[in-house]
Amino acid sequence: EEVLLTWDSTNSEINGYIIEWHDELEKDPNKRSWDRITNTTEWISHKGIFKHFKCYNFSVYPLCKDEIKKPTSISVYFHESVPSTGPQAEIENAGTDYAIIT
Question: Where would one find coiled-coil regions in this protein (predicted)?
Answer without folding.
Answer: none
